[in-house]
Design brief:
Elements lengths: L12 H5 L3 H14 L4 H8 L8 H11 L6 H17 L3 H16 L6 H14 L2 H5 L18 H6 L4 H22 L34
Helix pairs in contact: 2-3, 3-5, 4-5, 5-6
Length: about 220
């Protein structure tokens, strides 16, 4: 918490999900009033899609970006917010300049290898066929995803929330984090996916006992 406002404003998006858009905007505006350098609040306003920034907002965001002490996280949020604001104003060249810089800064903190992901998808598609799920296999593990909001859906409906939308929104970060979850539990998957890390033997070639450790699936 800094300057009287929590550094994360993500909880305010629940107001929009509940149909209380004006209250959502007011909450973000109050956060900005308490801490003008909170980039996440500005970006969250932009991410409402239908919100439009004023000329005064543009001047404030530009002034914040000129600060030398602005954190990297706040900086890329400001770039994304300004990109959206300028796009709405049909200033496309400047807009995409901010999008480019925001993505450059954000990419530094993201661990993502598209080639590795594509290879993982290909192996998964080859293994997880309809037959795989019909026939029992030795050493197979249960990776069912349990929706965390299912038990609370009645409560959500009771306050007028669109349950399907709320559950989809809540599930999104789970889906994004799922590859990392599988990577952490790679000892349960290496054998099934015929990984070449050398750490576990493939199914059909004996038990999934550890052998020589490798680094290719860390």
């Amino acid at each position: 918490m800094a300057g009287g406002v929590w550094r994360s404003t993500s909880a305010f998006s629940s107001l929009k999900t509940a149909g209380r858009r004006d209250e959502c905007v007011d909450a973000y505006r109050r956060s900005i009033e308490l801490e003008p350098g909170l980039g996440e609040a500005w970006w969250s306003l932009a991410n409402l899609k239908t919100f439009r920034f004023t000329n005064s907002d543009l001047a404030t965001m530009r002034a914040q970006l000129a600060r030398a002490d602005l954190s990297a996280e706040d900086r890329y949020h400001f770039h994304f917010a300004l990109g959206k604001a300028l796009e709405d104003a049909a200033l496309y060249e400047e807009s995409f300049g901010h999008y480019l810089e925001g993505n450059r800064l954000r990419r530094k903190g993201v661990r993502y290898d598209p080639d590795r992901t594509a290879a993982h998808v290909r192996r998964s598609k080859a293994l997880f066929t309809a037959g795989f799920f019909r026939e029992p296999q030795e050493d197979r593990h249960d990776f069912r995803v349990k929706p965390s909001l299912a038990t609370g859906s009645g409560k959500l409906a009771g306050i007028g929330v669109d349950v399907d939308r709320a559950q989809a929104k809540a599930a999104r970060p789970v889906v994004v984090r799922w590859p990392d979850h599988l990577r952490r539990r790679r000892h349960l998957l290496c054998a099934s996916l015929s990984c070449r890390c050398g750490q576990y033997t493939p199914l059909g070639g004996g038990s999934a006992a550890a052998s020589t450790r490798g680094a290719s699936c860390t």
